[in-house]
Amino acid sequence: xxxxxxxxxxxxxxxxxxxxxxxxxxxxxxxxxxxxxxxxxxxxxxxxxxxxxxxxxxxxxxxxxxxxxxxxxxxxxxxxxxxxxxxxxxxxxxxxxxxxxxxxxxxxxxxxxxxxxxxxxxxxxxxxxxxxxxxxxxxxxxxxxxxxxxxxxxxxxxxxxxxxxxxxxxxxxxxxxxxxxxxxxxxxxxxxxxxxxxxxxxxxxxxxxxxxxxxxxx
Length: 218
Ligand SMILES: C[S@@+](CC[C@H](N)C(=O)[O-])C[C@H]1O[C@@H](n2cnc3c(N)ncnc32)[C@H](O)[C@@H]1O
Prior knowledge:
- Helix content is 34%, strand content 25%.
- By secondary structure, it is α/β, with parallel strands linked by helices.
- The chain has one domain: Vaccinia Virus protein VP39 (Rossmann fold, 3-Layer(aba) Sandwich), CATH 3.40.50.
- The chain has a 7-stranded mixed beta sheet, sandwiched between helices.
- A hairpin with a 2-residue loop joins strand 6 (193-205) and strand 7.
- The chain starts with 9 loop residues before the first helix and ends with a strand.
- The model has no long low-confidence stretch (mean pLDDT 96).
- It binds S-adenosylmethionine.
- This is Methyltransferase domain-containing protein.
């Protein structure tokens, strides 16, 4: 068994700590976009693979070409590339950084794309549309706020799933600490969704632990 460990690339730490201002966060991704895929390889960043493993657990192989998936905070399209390799074909992407989205479009894996934020106000994404909304590595300072969760539920069809994979440590940032899980629990008490998975993974990026959660929308 390999004992090799990987550090978190400095650009990734910078992006999740740079600012509380979402527009400054996006400017940081714009600067990083051209080298993002070289910086984050399948060796040091397993978030996309973990998320797609969770989706394949939820969606049987026979349904994979029929389900509609929205990749939120899709970046350069790493999650879509993993999805298509496992038989998913109807993949849309939402990403507020144009420079990242341009690279994503060049993958030719995504059908519709939305150049917009989630959780910060108006949205052009229709309601009750997706069988799976997937979010990977989009939590941190100035990233998707708690309100983004309500939006993910709105975009998902009843019976569909929201799957989110993130660094575990980001739950401690003020945007989420004592807010995110209580809000998610409140939505569960209100009958909006039901928890399916909540688990810690030993690695998400570099040597940092990941959190995988999935909820079924009711
Ligand atoms: C670390 S990247 C992850 C990209 C991709 N999911 C991946 O795993 O490679 C975080 C992404 O979240 C996006 N992002 C940040 N705030 C967002 C928001 N409020 N709504 C949607 N996306 C957001 C950024 O533009 C960036 O592309």
